[in-house]
Amino acid sequence: MDHALAQRPLGSMGLHSSLLAFGAMGLSGVYGAADDHQSIALLRTALDKGVTMFDTADVYGNGHSESLMGEAFEGMRQRVVIATKTGEGADSGRGRPDYIRQAVEESLRRLKTDYIDLYYLHRVDPATPIEDSIGAMSELVTAGKVRYIGISEVGPKTIRRAHATHPISAVQQEYSLFVREAETEVLPTLRELGIGLVAYAPIGRGLLSGALKHIEDVENWEQRKARYPRFADDAFRANVQRVEKMRQIASDAGTTPAALALAWLLQSGPDIVPIFGTRGVAHLEENLRAASLALDARTVSRLTELFPVGALAGARYNEAALKRIDR
Ligand SMILES: NC(=O)c1ccc[n+]([C@@H]2O[C@H](COP(=O)([O-])OP(=O)(O)OC[C@H]3O[C@@H](n4cnc5c(N)ncnc54)[C@H](OP(=O)(O)O)[C@@H]3O)[C@@H](O)[C@H]2O)c1
Questions:
Q1: What spacing in Å lies between the alpha carbon of 217 and ligand 1's midpoint?
Q2: Which entry of 8, 154, 167, 323 is 20 to 30 Å from 253 by CA?
Q3: Tens digits of per-residue pLDDT, 165-218?
Q4: How close is the Cα of 50 to the center of ligand 1, in Å?
Q5: Catalytic residue among 60, 99, 119, 228
């Protein structure tokens, strides 16, 4: 192992992750083309550099992202914490116990393993009581197919109901300098219940890296703006302007905007694990530097002033995707 990244507990059931975790969604072409051989090598490099938790979902590339992880970690299962999800998709019924029971088998096959460390309900199914979805996942724990349970994009009431059904180890929510809404109700609820927060899209889907200055810099722009309105014309320009102001703060802290965005999340609480995504080793290395960055109080207050709650221009998702988010 090149480096050892410190471990953080997630929840109170025994789950641990490296300070920073790796998100494998972008390896299935969401933000631009990715090469499978390079992606498999990248996953192994991340492991060698001390990342232990790897995040995927059955919907990422329709199983493709899980298959890459299965390929990358075959023969080294004990060294990785595999997190995957089910229950996301346009049609309802994906939170039904029978759907979950079948989905887990397919994920296990693609991941080439007989257990999943952290299994999330990706979205709450409005047609299925949360107790039924989590109850089915709890049975998977009893059967030894799943070790810990998580849930993604949920409001406080659902978190409480889910946790009363089976102890939840992690809630996965979008959380970054641009999207701080979790601080209002979700984070206090998680802290009261002793549940960890896994912060997804911590680099604001690329915006907080400062690498995207012009629309021409954004790979798959048409597709991205259709799904993520933050990339649409005026919203994109407003977001870039704000990130431009962050450059000086990063430079004064002796780092880059991407590493600063991750370090800010890490200093926000010992119960937070950011999962970033990248397709390249250079960005992986840059992002991992966040783990050894100590931010002083002045840097933190400059950041929170520049990025107040609601700073993101443009909605997080398009309307269809927003409808599937539980509040
Ligand atoms: N639960 C959910 O509903 C949900 C939703 C979305 C995501 N997630 C999870 O969260 C993970 C991370 O989210 P994400 O990938 O959407 O967003 P992210 O980590 O905020 O951003 C990823 C984007 O940033 C770019 N990037 C990363 N590091 C960079 C750097 N140092 N410099 C310049 N650009 C950089 C990547 O491009 P390059 O590839 O070129 O580096 C990619 O386009 C996903 O992989 C997935 O596992 C979960």
A1: 16
A2: 8
A3: 999 999 999 999 999 999 999 999 999 999 999 999 999 999 999 999 999 999
A4: 18
A5: 60
Distance of alpha carbon 140 from alpha carbon 81, whole angstroms: 17
Structure tokens at 90: 């346009």
What are the sequence ranges of the domains in the chain?
A: 7-207+259-293
| Measured distance CA(34)–CA(291) in Å, rounded | 26
Tokens read off for 160:
């409480």
pLDDT tens, position by position, 244-281: 999 999 999 999 999 999 999 999 999 999 999 999 99
CATH top-level class for 7-207+259-293?
alpha beta
CB of residue 279 inside a 6 A radius of ligand 1: yes
Distance 277 CA to ligand 1 centre (A): 3
Q: Please indicate whether residue 99 is annotated as part of the active site.
A: no
The alpha carbons of the chain give a radius of gyration, in whole angstroms, of 19
Q: Whole-structure pTM over 0.85, yes or no?
A: yes
Is 25 close to ligand 1, i.e. is its CB under 6 Å away?
yes
Retrieve residue 21's tokens. 């975790």
- Determine the Cα–Cα distance for residues 116 and 103; give it in Å rounded to an integer: 12
Pick the residue whose CA is nearest to atom 43 on ligand 1: 206
Identify which of 124, 221, 278 to mutate to test ligand 1's pocket (most ligand atoms within 8 A of the CB). Answer: 278
Question: Which of the four pLDDT bands, split at 50, 70 and 90, describes residue 3?
Answer: low
Beta strand ranges found along the chain (DSSP E): 7-10, 15-18, 21-23, 53-55, 81-86, 116-121, 146-152, 168-174, 196-200, 272-276
- What pLDDT was estimated at residue 153? 97
CA 75 to chain centre: 25
Percent of the chain past pLDDT 70, that is, above it, reads 99
